[in-house]
Amino acid sequence: MKVPFYTGAVSFKRQWPLIAAKLDQILDQGLFTNGPVVKELERAMETFTGAKHAIAVGNATEALVIMLKAAGIGPGDEVIVPSFTFFASASSIVHAGAVPVFCDIDPVTYMLKPDELEDKVTARTKAIMPVHLFTQMADMKAICEIAEKHGLLVLEDSAEAISMFHEGKHAGIVGQAGVISFFPTKTLGAIGDAGLILTNRDDLAARARLLRLHGQEEDEPYVHHLVGTNSRMDDIQAAVLLARLQYLPSEIAKRSHWATLYDRLLADLPQVQTPHIRVREEAANPVYYVYLIEAEQRDELVEYLSEQGIGTETYYPIPLHLQPCFSHLGYEPGSMPHAEHACSRTVGLPMYPDLQEADVRAVCEAIRKFYESGGEG
Ligand SMILES: *Cc1c(COP(=O)(O)O)cnc(C)c1O
User: Fold this and answer.
1) CA 366 to centroid of chain Cα atoms
2) Which terminal residue of the chain has fewer beta carbons within 10 Å of its beta carbon, N or C?
3) Can you give the pLDDT at residue 13?
4) Which residues does UniProt mark as catalytic (predicted)?
5) Residue 181 Cα, ligand 1 centroid: separation in angstroms?
6) What's the CA-to-centroid distance between 54 and ligand 1, angstroms?
7) What SS3 state is found at 228?
8) Which residue from 192, 237, 235 is spatially nearest to 30, judged by alpha carbons?
9) Measured on CA atoms in the order 184, 344, 166, 287, is the torsion positive or negative?
C-alpha cells in the first residue's frame, strides 16, 4: 500500500467550490497582488491570531528577513537561534546583515534550550529567535525571562506554528513579532508560496509594510522611505487561504486523531520514540504539523519504507552549525550534541488531514516489519 508523505490534492478538491467563489471575485476585480483579497486575509488572520497587525508577504523566508530588519536587526548584531531548525531561521539573520549564534536544543522537544541560551548572550546580542517546531512551542516563559533580563528582543520563527498558543497568546505575538508560512505542506497551505508577519507593535508593523513594498507607502508610490524589497502575496493565494481557514480547526483535529493512532500503534516498539508533548500550561495544544519520531537505524528505515511506497521526510539531516555555508563561524562537530543527535535519528511520517486509518496502519505495520526482520527489511 502506497502512502505518500504529503498530498494536498484531496482536501484541495473538496474545498474547491469555496475557493472558486473567491477566485471569481479576483477575476472581476482584476487586482492580482497585494489587492483586496490579500487585505481580507490580513484582517482574517488578525482575528484568528489576535495579533494587532498581520502583514502578508511572498513567503515566510522573506517574512523572517523583513521582520528582523523591521525590528532594527542589522550589521554588528548577533541573533541567537537553535541549530536544529529549517535553514531559513538562520539565513534570514544573515540576509538582515547580522550573525546567527547557534544554540543547542532540548532533546525532548527539539527546541531552544533555555539553560544553554544564556551562555550565548554577548554584548552584541540583539535578539533571540525561538523556533516552534513540528507540534508545539518553545519554552517561551523561560526564553522571554532571559530576554527581559538582558534587554533582548524575542523574534519568533513561528512559520510552522499556526494555531499554537502560549498562555492564550498565538505564536508570533508572545515576543515582539513572528511569521507564518503558508507553503503548501504547512498546516494551512496555499497552492504556492505565501507568508505573513504578525506583531502587536505599530512601529514594527509600519516598517514591515514599507519593507515589503520597496520602502514605499501604498498610497505614495515612487517615494522610498526605506530600501525595501518586493515581497507581495498573490490574491489567488489569499483566496485559497481564506477558504481553507474555515476548515483549519477541523483539519487540526483530524491531524490529532492520526497522531493519537500513530502513538498507539507504535507504543510498544522499543526502537521508536513517539513525540513527547511537554505540557507547560493547562491549555497546551499540540498542532501536528509534522509527526516526528526518533528511530534506530533511521536511514535504513527510511530506505525500507520508501521501497514499500511509504513517503517520509528527514527533518533535518544536518544541524545548521555544521552546514558548509556557516563553516567560517567555527563550530565543531560535537559542540551541540542534542541537535546532532536529533539530526541522526528523527524522521517525519505521513501526516495530513486526509490520511485514512488504513494508511496509518500500513505505515506502522511496515515500521514493525523492518525492526522484526532485524533492521534489514
Ligand atoms: C517552512 C518554514 C520556513 C520558511 O517558510 P517558507 O514559506 O517556505 O519560506 C521557515 N522556518 C521554518 C521553521 C519553517 O518550517
Assistant:
1) 28
2) N
3) 82
4) 186 (proton acceptor)
5) 6
6) 17
7) coil
8) 235
9) positive
| Residue 254 falls in the annotated catalytic set | no
Judge contact between 321 and 116, C-beta under 8 A: no
Q: What cell was used for 123? A: 554584548
Query: Closest by alpha carbon to 167, among 142, 188, 185?
Result: 142
Q: What is the pLDDT of residue 9?
A: 76
Partners of 295 in the beta sheet? 272
**Paired strand residues for 100:** 79
Of ligand 1's listed atoms, the one at least distance from the Cα of 160 is: 15
The model's pLDDT over 182-214, given as tens digits with 9 standing for 90+, comes to 999 999 999 999 999 999 999 999 999 999 999
Structural domains in the chain plus CATH codes: 9-245 (3.40.640.10), 248-372 (3.90.1150.10)
Q: Which three cell numbers stand for residue 312?
A: 517520509
Which tens digit of pLDDT belongs to each residue from 254-298? 999 999 999 999 999 999 999 988 766 655 679 999 999 999 999
Cβ 183 under 6 angstroms from ligand 1:
yes
Q: In angstroms, rounded to a whole number, what is the distance separating the alpha carbons of residues 336 and 199? A: 31
Of 6, 57, 59, 61, the residue with max ligand 1 atoms within 8 A of its CB, to mutate for a pocket test, comes to 61
Mean pLDDT of 3-23: 83
Q: 128 vs 147, 165, 176, CA distance in Å?
A: 7, 19, 11
Nearest protein Cα to ligand 1, atom 2: 159
Q: Is 23 exposed, middle or buried (0-12, 13-18, 19+ CB in 10 A)?
A: middle
CA 22 to chain centre: 26
* Dihedral (CA of 238, 192, 212, 244) sign: positive
Q: How many Å apart are CA 128 and CA 79, to the nearest integer?
A: 6
62 C-alpha to ligand 1 centroid (Å): 9
Residue that has been written with the C-alpha cell 488578525 in this structure:
46
φ/ψ of 54, rounded to 5, equals -120, 125
C-alpha cell at 265: 500503534
In tens, the pLDDT along 335-375 reads 999 999 999 999 999 999 999 999 999 999 999 999 999 87
